[in-house]
Amino acid sequence: MASRIPQLQSKVTQASQVVAKNGGSYYKLLLEQNRHYIQEPPTIEKCQSLAKQLFYTRLASIPLRYNSFLKDLDYVKNIVKNRHDLNIEDVGIGALFGLECFAWFWGGEIVGRGFTFTGYYV
Description:
Number of strands: 0
Largest sheet: none
Strand content: under 5%
Number of helices: 4
Helix content: over 70%
Mean pLDDT: 88
Structural class: mainly alpha
Low-confidence stretches: none
Number of domains: 3
């Protein structure tokens, strides 16, 4: 493991040199390509105004998202009510979805603890 540290350091050095050499031109290109999103003049008041617009726009979208959630919930209720009509493919997709949710939760817990396996005997 210790022998890999110099290799890792050289890779990091190479990557930082590439970023230092090409970072400025990439930044300018990115700003030029997205010029239509930039508000002029770039003042604090304009930023605060845009933040308020974003907040209230998202607040106004809650009823639409709530209605969509209710439709999805009705769909799930209908599936549970008619579960005898399910085939093995639908059950497998549901099981994989549940497994994926569990895996994301478990991975998030590990990342949140700083990549430590506290309480687990590995």
